Amino acid sequence: MGPPKVKNVESAVMAKGEAKPIAATTAKSGAKSRPLTRIQREKQDIILEAALDVFSMHGFRGSTIDQIAEVAGMSKPNLLYYFPRKEEIHRRLISALLVTWLAPLREMDAAGDPFPEIRSYIRRKLEMARDFPRESRLFANEMLQGAPRIIEMIEVDLKNLVDEKADVLLTWMDQGKIARTDPYHLIFSIWATTQHYADFDVQVRAVLGPARGGEGRFEDAARYLEHLFLYGLTPRQPVTVK
Amino acid sequence: MGPPKVKNVESAVMAKGEAKPIAATTAKSGAKSRPLTRIQREKQDIILEAALDVFSMHGFRGSTIDQIAEVAGMSKPNLLYYFPRKEEIHRRLISALLVTWLAPLREMDAAGDPFPEIRSYIRRKLEMARDFPRESRLFANEMLQGAPRIIEMIEVDLKNLVDEKADVLLTWMDQGKIARTDPYHLIFSIWATTQHYADFDVQVRAVLGPARGGEGRFEDAARYLEHLFLYGLTPRQPVTVK
DNA sequence: CTAACATTTTTCCAACTGGTCAAAATTCTT
DNA sequence: AAGAATTTTGACCAGTTGGAAAAATGTTAG
């Protein structure tokens, strides 16, 4: 697991308005949308980067445009030139996030072998927790607030994806390839255990202490989680427990 | 698992100042502290209740005194009569929380049988996620923000407790009573999987849908988690996995 | 080089923020 | 019931917030 450290929060390019203000993300109507200038592309990226920093720590309401502008190294009105609304920045981050975030689950292949598939799903999720902790926290923050801005996406896109993958898991269970348990809660537990290392990072570090809280903690976590899920999923007769 | 639905966020009584303002929580110096009046006790509880609602959703920075006052059904100045500082309310909630929150782990007894002990720890944590979701979210919010207000408690009290319990787990592993894995990450995974049902409640409900997302979801979760951890911890030879 | 456009800065605003204060209203004690 | 203490209210304040407007400055295609 080598840290890729990708930047660019979002590369999908958006439309630009007519004269002064850069149009809202959704290119509605027949608004002729000129391609973004170099400066626009650069500055939008810088702003989104800065906003990710701030929003992921303080949530939407707890973050201010001033803060974001400062991190981005520009003045507030200047920032507002690129994103006329605070909400707009947040929405861009969130929607870019959801795509990335669900990619690993999407990759879980019904045609593959169950254990390798599940194991590599866990591994990928853990890598994301390590390499994109801010994205994880942004998502967590949104959840804590009741997901006001993404509830529909959760209820539709996410739900559909999970339904589909739960079916895959069920098939594997039917074939006796993995233990029979609740596929939904299985997915939840993978999310929970992996994202924990991003969302509760402070706690994890503090508890592990300087000796074990270094970068190695992700290796340890990967090893542990593999063991937990592997032996918890191996089909066999229950062992007698005193 | 019957829902207890306890109220009273905090029962620990605090000192009151001389004439006008109710003294800060910390009863320092020789400030003669009259016992709290009935009204003071009642109103403080109402305020803390309301503050828990608000802080747990929006975090410290994202919450306003006005908001809390409105939920509490009183005017802002009136609220400030009881808690002169916004931080004071938050601190009271957090410190009351930490005690409650760690109780289940504290109860894990080295003298007991490993599996029953671990199983009932998981069960208790899950019950807390079900019965005190706001407390869970308050904690999560604080973590996401880097735990600025409780980092010392995490680094000292929490760390010590976890160190102690990790030792207990290690002993059990040495005795061959549970599988040998990383005890710290084991504890993390219990925290993560159980608290997930409070912190990501919206997501869990949305994904499970109306049919399975009702109150029964905690039963299902309990069953699933028991299976996951039980078979994941049963000491035995690794099964060959294709 | 320059007009047309893009970007940045300056100034400003109304609403909201945490918090103060004195006066008014209520409750408690005797 | 009266006086003292407690509780509540209304008016107010300085700093912050999201955002508007326009002037000033830069950039670039022809």
UniProtKB/TrEMBL annotation, chains A, B:
DNA-binding region(s) from the entry: 64-83
GO biological process: negative regulation of DNA-templated transcription
HTH tetR-type domain boundaries: 41-101
InterPro entries (UniProt xref): Homeodomain-like_sf, HTH-type_TetR-like_transc_reg, HTH_TetR, Tet_transcr_reg_TetR-rel_C_sf, Tscrpt_reg_YcdC_C
Keyword DNA-binding applies: yes
One family name in Pfam for this protein: TetR_C_3
Gene Ontology MF, one: transcription cis-regulatory region binding
Keywords of this entry: DNA-binding
Protein name, UniProt field: Transcriptional regulator, TetR family
Species for this entry: Devosia limi DSM 17137
